[in-house]
Description:
One of its GO terms (biological process) is methylation. This protein is α/β, with parallel strands linked by helices. The chain has 7 helices and 7 strands, in the order H-H-H-E-H-E-H-E-E-H-E-H-E-E.
Amino acid sequence: MITTETEARAWLEQRPEYTPEAAQRLDTLVAMLGQENQQQNLVSAASLDQVWLRHIVDSAQLLAHVPRETSGAWFDLGTGAGFPGLVIAALRPDLEVVMVESRARRIEWLDRARLAMGLDRARVEGRRLELVDSCHAAVISARAFAPLQRLLELSSRFSTSDTRWVLPKGRSAKQELEDLRKWRHVFHVEQSLTDPQAGIIVGTLTGRKG
Ligand SMILES: C[S@@+](CC[C@H](N)C(=O)[O-])C[C@H]1O[C@@H](n2cnc3c(N)ncnc32)[C@H](O)[C@@H]1O
């Protein structure tokens, strides 16, 4: 388990995606987030004291559950402050990372951060998810966006049997998966590296029952 900022930085440093350029992009994000959080409530002020643990590595750990050879679009739903979307884009600049976010000030923030970080292949889909055109996502992530059942209702149209879902779900991961009735899936729960109580739902969606 990663419990300190030092351990979080050390974990990142051993990731193959953590190039000098990626490190610079993440440093830019951390600096900008600290400033922007004084203008709008993006993340809790307390969490900024552990920003590498609570936000950067909490997001980056999702990469361990996605095959390295994955190409295509990574859809991050309800990106808000930028998590995990901006972190994934910083570490995998080769991927088309699509950050779906509906609130105007957050859309403006995400776009500004994306440009400052030099993320040419990432983009912000600044509207409600319900209004985004259907297309195929290679990966779908969503942190603190919606309960699992609702999340699948809203976003299964972006998924095929090849789409990898990676859903940080906090303490409710196992329960939400057990309660899932209407869907056929090959999901399981992985332990979060940043919170002993939290799980990440990982896997593929194979269809809807009935
Ligand atoms: C609780 S925040 C989580 C933000 C970020 N994923 C994180 O973990 O820090 C949820 C975000 O989803 C956005 N959101 C909620 N419903 C949405 C919808 N239907 N379409 C797009 N964005 C939505 C909100 O504006 C908000 O920024």
